[in-house]
Structure formats: structure tokens, C-alpha cells
Prior knowledge:
alpha/beta, globular, 5-stranded mixed sheet, 11 helices
Amino acid sequence: MTQIKHIGRFCQTDDHGFIMNDSSTANINNEFQQVVDAVLETYRLYLGNELHSVYVRGSIPRGLGIVNVSDIDTIAILNKRVEDIDLGWRDKVEQELNDKYKCVKGVELSFYYIDDILQTNRFSIIPFMIKTHSICVYGDDLSVRLPHYKVDKTLGNEHLFHLKDQITLARKDLYDNEDRNDILDCCGWIMKIIVRAGLALVIEEENKYTRDLFPAYQLFSHYYPEHDSEMKQAVQYAIDPISDTYKIMRFLNQFGDWMINEAEKWLQIHNPKKVAKMEIEQIAQ
């Protein structure tokens, strides 16, 4: 069993309260850099002139990557709409990269149309990730054209508005599923969502944000000590997923339902009109 490590940190903010990006290519060690180079070669080979830029996001460019534990999550920005490009090669190539590079837990390829990224009057998670948690490793860096982001209810809403639908989808994916790898992926995915939603419940009180699981769990438990054990279990399932669908479903039917109810209470206070993507504060770039 992978042990929960007391690592991670909250995002730093500037004097205006905007999140500062602490990602850097200098944080990507040689072992991880080999994987990044392979991913870039893949994107260039299959996308050619339709590739605008590529970003590495998450723990690795922030210097928090752990060999054999961390994923390499990448974002490819395209010059054409995603639906207009043949991506039938994606699953096969992802699997080949995962089989070849064991220093990472997994490699994720993702694709977004540039015009969608640059529509920034309302909160959207990918522009947010590019601006605050990613580093450009190929092409023209779009982050300079994106707005600054504060730690506020707009960000909290992103984690709580979709929580019910995400847990419902996880239940659907797990039902009668006998594909072990698919179950493991689903378990890790939904548990990360739950942990980050726990932080979002107290984002207005604390004015703190992180995508790192351990500090998110700690802050949630400070406000909800009676649910410390459940959230700690969610962290454990996130970093060391299980394939026992009965245990996962039982957890979602108990703590997951409690989280859904708490999210609904939060939305009634902070987003009573139930706006999926809230307007963000704009400042001159």
C-alpha cells in the first residue's frame, strides 16, 4: 500500500490576491524530461501544423513529482476544433508511452481548441490550469493572454457545481465493470475530485487553494473533524486506487452522498442561481 506523504503546498498569491504560477522547466528532472520529450515528439508527429502549443501541468513542473507515483499530464492546444481532427491514435499511443516509461504512473494526452481556451470572461478549468499550474514546453505560451485568477467562490464553484454529476458518472462506470484497469482509473479520478471538493467547501473562509491532496485534506478536516477518517480514506484511494467495486461504491454511497449534500448547501449560499461557469474578475494584462 502506498503511504500518504505529507507533501504539497497551497498556492501563493500576489499583493492583489491573484494566484502565482510556481511551475518551471527547471523542476522537471532528467528522468521525467525523457517522457516529456517523447510526448512532444508524439504530438508533433500526429498533429503537425495543427499543433499550436503544449503544456505540462500538475506536480512535476512544480517540483513535487515522485518517481513511479506521479502522472505526466499534458495539454495540447490545437489550431483546429478537436472534433475536426483525427485522434483515433490517442489510446494506442498513450498505452505505448505508459508501457515504455515506468518512472511515471501514467501519461495523459489532452486536446483543446485555441479559440475555446481564449474565451475567458467566465471561469474554465483548462485556461485556469494553463495560467496557474502549467509550464509551456512547446509553441507560443498562451498564459500571457489569459486572465489572472483569485482564490474565491468562482474557483470553489468549479469543484462543487459538477460534483453530483461526477459521482453519478463514477457509479455508472463502476456498475458491473470487470475491467480492473478501468476500475482503478475511475477510483483514482473520483477520489481526487472528492478531496478537492472538500477544500472548495471552505475556500471562502480560508482564502486558500491547492490541487495537492494532503494539504486539501488537512484543511477540510480542520473544519469537519468528524469526517477526517472518510476524507483521509479518499486521499488513500486517490494515490493508491483499489479495484474492489463494492468498497468504492459503498464509499460513494455514504461519504460521496454526504459531500453532494454539503456541496448543495454551499451552492445555495454562494451560487443560488446555479451558474455553471461564473464570471471572473478581469484586470489589465
